[in-house]
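pls ignore typos typing on phone
pantoate + seq
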Amino acid sequence: MQVATTILQARALFDVLPRPLGFVPTMGALHEGHLALVRRAREESTTVGASIFINPLQFGANEDLEKYPRDIEADRAKFSAAGVDVLFLPNQAVMYPPDFSTAVDAGEMGTRFEGAARPTHFRGVTTVVSKLLNIVRPDTLYLGQKDAQQTAVLRRMIRDLDIPTHVTIVPTEREADGLALSSRNVYLSVEERQAAPSLHHALQALRMAMQMGKSKADAVAAARTRLDPLAQLDYLDVVDANTFAPIDVLSPPAFVIGAARFGSTRLLDNLWIE
Ligand code: PAF
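k done
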């Protein structure tokens, strides 16, 4: 695996390696969910690129930027073993020099749900991913379904800005008890870890209740009873997969989405409705 730390080095490698080029952007703290993206990219691409960059722009003032898990040596080894050809590993000065001043606005979709809870989050995601796509210029961008709203926001950005990159969404990897893999799961205490799969169970209950003909309000009420008492629910809803606007019927493509806090750790999950 070759490692590029500057934009010039990255372009020099990505511009000459054989196509198609699949690209997996990450913030490190790699788990099986990230590696599933690499495996899919490896199956479908001649060259696989990945990046690790903890993007400060997508963290709010009181969020976990400082304590976000970091283990760069382990991440490098995992990417290398999974078959990444080129790792782009920029530091903050490379991505955001002191006079950096432009941002990509995620529009209305970026103000809902996660955007309401974290007002500057999607603007940070769209800004860094548009930079990464301009640097790497991949044929296909691989994103995890776990961050469903992020996938919708980025697909829209790529469409609206005519970026010549295809997007592939890879299904969420889960623990045996249903908990979606996330870099933030390491923050959970033993009790919170036991409670956390109840978010997934609540989403399944919501989907089943709506499939059985209940109204969304009744289905959400039924789903809430599946949450562990430790869960502090932020939202449970059903949204159009392309716009993330709430919908009242399970008409595909849609997501059943949820977010809840377990202690100080905020977890997200979703089910894809095809
Ligand atoms: O999903 C993530 O890890 C990040 O939001 C991403 C896409 C790498 C942008 O920083």
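The pocket of pantoate is lined by residues 25-27, 55, 58, 125, 128-129, 147, 150 (CB under 6 Å). The mean pLDDT is 98. more later
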